[in-house]
């Protein structure tokens, strides 16, 4: 049975959480499923409202499923949690800003992630057994999923009180604090849901509403405001200790169990947020500053261990209750710069075919950026975080973009014939292989006939660039397809150049590499000549690198060991770009030159020299700059 039931019913889109034994704890997959449904219904004229509820009697949703976060975080992998939080927070904002009414039915426990899911909807219904809380400080975290937004808007200092003590709110308290909108007795829920489904009209809520129960928090408001008005955690603790009343004693007992750093950060967050500029996105962005750091620099993993894993209820917090340095609080809330929370739509669904030395790190970078990757490689290579497909067709099925990194044009044509029939209309086939221009254009025609787009986007930058995400893409294909793939180019590389229609990416790559092959030979010849003329290699580099002989082959990839920036020459010519790959690319250049009737004598000679180096000498498996030791050994013949 699915963890979540999403369906159209009458005039409503319905979402029902279906993990009652787990108190409907929210998983990553459930978050993504909810967002996908909201996106689908946003512009659907058949859907007038969204109805959100849950199975079971005990909880609407008691929080997020944090077991996987603990497992990955304990192993030193913080990216899984950060990706989960990024996607969940984007969903929280989407719920708050949704253009159609969303009615949430909040019964039983509604905590943490449950507040993020049901607490930002336009119409929030509670009943007698509703118990809403933000208990995150108890596990070394802070109120998140937009909880800080609700807390900062609560009357007086209720936000501080609720965030620091994790106090549970009944229906009257929830309405008073702004976490709910209406009280409807539980026995009237089914009839109300049926009316909403049939009519798609939320005005029917008014007739179903009953007077809200009394709010104990409202009665204690003045006392809470006085006790929790302090600027810092120490100020609040001093006020509680000096009061002596029941409210203060109960609050102090609750806070003594929570992570001191979490409470100090929560207090600072609420103070920064409260004001006329507050909105849901501002709150979520600040929460993500903490989320991004909390496993590595906070008490989150220890809190989960004590509460959920070992269940010893004895966490060893980083700080004492009375000694949380202000600098540690500030550090948790520092802006993240380029890593700041973005509310861009969630990552694309990507099929990646060809997970070799280049493809595997490229796929890994896409996964780290939040994209959903299904990978296939004939050698059975897998990439952590990618779904392993049994075939190229399986990897491509339903993908927004299919990326291929393959050895040659014949294999590209075969893979294209397999994947194009299963790709959805409007998807993009993005080939990053280096192949012949004719194959690239043939595949593009086949894709176009199937209602798809194709891009030929060979890369420059080698294995190091693939791992570092600094590749350069030379792209052929339509402007529209290039625009759709641009976010992926930004993840995998530092530059993407649109070179024109289909095939032009391959044309740019082979022209570039023909220049590279020719200039590397000339550079190696010059170093060998300098040796024989008694000119030191360093002197030659110093002169030529700043003179008219300047080239990438010399300045960035110097073939002489110990000269210039570090290169494969400094690692016994272990390949960054293997000589046999240069043979391949120079061969493609000559094939294209013949087809275009272009005179390329230097390119032809470079091909002949590299082919001899690989097939008859010791060049196979060595970097293409290993031409230098070849020329060192040779005299003029």
Please outline the helices and strands:
Elements: E1 4-9, E2 12-17, H1 28-42, E3 49-54, E4 59-61, H2 67-74, H3 79-96, E5 102-106, E6 109-111, H4 113-118, E7 123-126, E8 131-133, H5 147-153, H6 158-165, H7 171-177, E9 182-183, H8 189-199, H9 205-208, H10 216-219, H11 221-227, H12 233-243, H13 246-255, H14 260-273, H15 280-297, H16 300-309, H17 326-332, E10 349-353, H18 359-368, E11 372-376, E12 387-388, H19 392-396, E13 401-404, H20 409-419, E14 428-431, H21 437-449, E15 453-456, E16 459-460, H22 462-468, E17 471-476, H23 479-492, E18 493-500, H24 504-532, H25 537-544, H26 552-555, H27 579-596, H28 601-615, H29 627-632
Helix pairs in contact: 1-3, 2-16, 3-15, 5-6, 5-14, 6-14, 12-13, 14-17, 18-22, 20-21, 24-27, 24-28, 27-28
Pathway: Amino-acid degradation; L-valine degradation
GO molecular function: 3-hydroxyisobutyrate dehydrogenase activity
Pfam families: ECH_2, NAD_binding_11, NAD_binding_2
